[in-house]
Structures are given as C-alpha cells and as structure tokens.
C-alpha cells in the first residue's frame, strides 16, 4: 500500500526553474495495478524517484505500508522492488550474478537466492541468457534482468518505470501476465507509461498526470465516463490537456 500526498519537486538550472512535480497525490492499493500515465516530461519519473527514496520531495508526504519514507527510508526500501528508468545492470556480471548481487545486498542466503532466481527466470523466460554476461544484451534482456533483480527479495510493493519501453509484442505480453500474477498475489504494483492502451490493458486504476499535476484518477471506464469519449486515446488527450499540442 502506497500513499503519496501533495508532492512537490523543482529543479534549478541556469535557464531557470523547472517545477517537475506540483502537488501530486494518489493512493496505490494492495492487490491492484496502478498506472501513472502522462506525456513526456509530465513528472512521472520524478514522482517515482521520490517514492523509491532516490530524491526527497520539497514538500509532501509518502507512506509505504504505513511507514513514512522521510522517517525510515531503509525500512521502506526493503518493502519496495524497483525497476528504475535507467536499468543500470552491471555489464561485467551475468544476469544471474546481477540478481544474486542484489539478493546478497538484501541479506538473503544463497539457497533462497538460487530458488528465487530460478523461479523468476522461468516466469520471465530468461533461461537462454541467464548465465551470459549482460554486456551486449538486447533491451528486452536487460529489462528482464533488471526486473528479476528488483524482485529477488520478494517485495510487497513493486514500482516499474516504463517497464515495456522497447519490448516486443511477446515480451510485453509475458510481462503483463507477470504483473497480473504479482497483483493476484496481493502485491501493490505501480508502473508508469505514456501509452494509454498500455495502461488500460493492465491497470485497475489510472492516475493521469500532466505538467506535474494529477489531472484525473479512475478505472478506464470511469475515465471514459468523465470525458464522454469512447476512445481511450482521445480520453488521454482530453484529460492530459494535450488538445492544443502538435499531433
Ligand atoms: N535532474 C533533473 N534536473 C533538471 N530537470 C529535471 C531533472 N529531472 C527531471 N527534470 C525535468 O522535470 C520534468 C519532469 O521530468 P520527468 O522525467 O519526471 O518526466 P516523465 O513524465 O518521466 O517524462 P518521460 O515520459 O519523458 O520519461 C521535465 O521537464 C524534466 O526535464
């Protein structure tokens, strides 16, 4: 269970200040997949980075399973599995070694690491590259390795930044099935995307974000009803206020 309240974050540079996140708040429940949907630059990655303790908000509050992120970030990290936007896998290690390394950082014993690695390699269809060094991996192979690594400690809450970016149809379908399994096990799953169809295919609830603000929250049907539009892409364009933007 994840709760975000009134988050703010800005970045100061030579060209001025960018208000990346302006009052974002939403709840992501256990046993549900929550999609953070927004166009490029909407503030999705910044919001997720604050959630997974990589950066502190200037204002606002985050709770994971009732634990305040500002008060006990280490306890929150143990409860989170994170696929960051920069996948950041170690290229000198094999996929299996990347996963095991994170398992050791989480204090898991070798037998548990082996068992978890085998289970995830099977679910994510990693068997043919599990023992190869990750240097030269395709984007899909890197993403799968990073997902398996993120979940090695069996976290209750799973956060994925644009998980299907660059994946082919079959890999995307496999990943969707995997995320549904995590949801059906009662976990809290949050992922970001800029593609309405992607989010609609998978999410129990969608949080539409644009220009650093939440524009709407609801199921795909609720969002359709809000706008009176049948086509989900039109719904997204309307809710995100993109109508004036170039096609
Ligand atoms: N470290 C940073 N320094 C300066 N500006 C930043 C930084 N991180 C994000 N921004 C700016 O904040 C805004 C929101 O960026 P963010 O990466 O959160 O968007 P996003 O919704 O994830 O976009 P995308 O779909 O393109 O990944 C953008 O204008 C971006 O340029």
From TrEMBL:
Q: Which PROSITE patterns match?
A: ABC_TRANSPORTER_2
Q: Which Pfam families match?
A: ABC_tran (PF00005)
Q: Which SUPFAM superfamilies match?
A: P-loop containing nucleoside triphosphate hydrolases
Q: Could you tell me the superkingdom of the organism this chain comes from?
A: Bacteria
- List the GO molecular function terms: ATP binding; ATP hydrolysis activity
Which Gene3D superfamilies would you find in this protein's record? P-loop containing nucleotide triphosphate hydrolases
Q: Which UniProt keywords apply?
A: ATP-binding, Nodulation, Nucleotide-binding, Transport
Q: Report the residue ranges that make up the ABC transporter domain in this protein.
A: 2-236
Query: What's the family?
Result: Belongs to the ABC transporter superfamily.
The protein, known as: ATP-binding cassette domain-containing protein
Species of origin reads: Luteimonas wenzhouensis
Taxonomic placement: Bacteria, Pseudomonadati, Pseudomonadota, Gammaproteobacteria, Lysobacterales
């Amino acid at each position: 269970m994840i709760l975000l309240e009134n988050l703010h974050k800005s970045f100061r540079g030579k060209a001025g200040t960018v208000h990346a996140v302006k009052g974002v708040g939403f709840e992501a429940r256990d046993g549900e997949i929550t999609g953070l949907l927004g166009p490029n630059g909407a503030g999705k990655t910044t919001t997720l980075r604050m959630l997974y303790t990589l950066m502190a908000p200037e204002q606002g509050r985050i709770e994971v399973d009732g634990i305040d992120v500002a008060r006990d970030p280490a306890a929150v990290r143990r409860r989170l599995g994170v696929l960051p936007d920069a996948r950041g896998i170690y290229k000198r290690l094999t996929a299996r070694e990347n996963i095991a390394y994170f398992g050791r950082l989480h204090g898991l014993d070798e037998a548990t690491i082996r068992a978890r690695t085998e289970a995830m390699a099977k679910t994510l269809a990693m068997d043919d590259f599990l023992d190869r060094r990750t240097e030269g991996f395709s984007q899909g192979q890197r993403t799968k390795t990073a997902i398996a690594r993120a979940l090695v400690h069996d976290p209750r809450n799973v956060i994925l930044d644009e998980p299907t970016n660059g994946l082919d149809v079959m890999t995307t379908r496999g990943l969707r099935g995997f995320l549904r399994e995590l949801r059906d096990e009662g976990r809290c799953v949050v992922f970001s995307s800029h593609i309405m169809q992607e989010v609609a295919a998978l999410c129990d609830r969608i949080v539409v974000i644009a220009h650093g603000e939440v524009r709407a929250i609801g199921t795909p049907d609720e969002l359709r009803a809000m706008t009176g539009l049948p086509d989900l892409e039109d719904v997204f364009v309307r809710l995100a206020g993109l109508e004036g933007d170039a096609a």
